[in-house]
Write a structure and sequence with these properties.
It is built from 2 helices and 10 strands; from the N terminus they run H-E-E-E-E-E-E-E-E-E-E-H. By secondary structure, it is α/β, with parallel strands linked by helices. The strands form 2 sheets. A 5-stranded mixed sheet has the order 3-4-1-6-7, with no helix packed on it. It has a 5-stranded mixed sheet with strand order 5-2-10-9-8, with helices on one face. The termini are far apart.
């Protein structure tokens, strides 16, 4: 009897605790929408910055309209933990079309590479901090039906990092002038 009692009590309590934590966590989560144009290629980087933009909020969701360089400087806090994210393509007519969120990239041999390059999903990414002031950032990979070799991917990421460094330097200069 005493052997089974802890299991009978513990199991329902743990299930209840996980349910409550999950319900509260998802309800209180920061809600974010990432919006890219139809012809976007590369990585999305949203970076906390005093020189950043305050995104529009629609139905309690932050609307990050990502520029072509993939870098959105955000004047706000990127929260960690439970996050409610959605990804959209903004068509030329302004219509938003939700795109699939994936855990990992599609295998190269499974991609339909014939025809015009188009976005097929968003995957992976990460959350972290960098720089002197430990600036928080998130990173997401926008996947297209085109297969890029490793050298091309490296060049695209390097170029984006150079742009980000330039934007951060400009921000520091503005901050020091004031």
């Amino acid at each position: 009897m005493w052997t089974i009692t802890p299991i009978v009590i513990w199991y329902p309590l743990m299930i209840g605790l996980f349910w409550v934590a999950g319900t509260i966590g998802t309800t209180m989560a920061q809600k974010r929408d990432y919006i890219v144009s139809e012809n976007f290629k590369g990585t999305i980087k949203v970076v906390e910055s005093e020189c950043g933009l305050k995104p529009e909020i629609i139905n309690g969701r932050l609307q990050f309209e990502i520029p072509q360089n993939g870098i959105y400087l955000f004047d706000g806090e990127l929260k960690s933990g439970y996050i409610n994210e959605k990804n959209y393509i903004k068509k030329e007519n302004g219509q938003l079309v939700e795109i699939e969120s994936k855990f990992w990239a599609t295998k190269e041999d499974e991609k339909d590479t014939i025809g015009v390059e188009k976005i097929i999903g968003v995957y992976g990414g990460g959350y972290g901090s960098f720089g002197d002031n430990k600036t928080n950032f998130i990173e997401k990979y926008v996947e297209t039906n085109k297969v890029y070799d490793d050298k091309t991917k490296w060049r695209m990421n390097k170029r984006q990092d150079e742009i980000l460094d330039s934007l951060r330097t400009d921000c520091k200069l503005k901050k020091n002038k004031n």
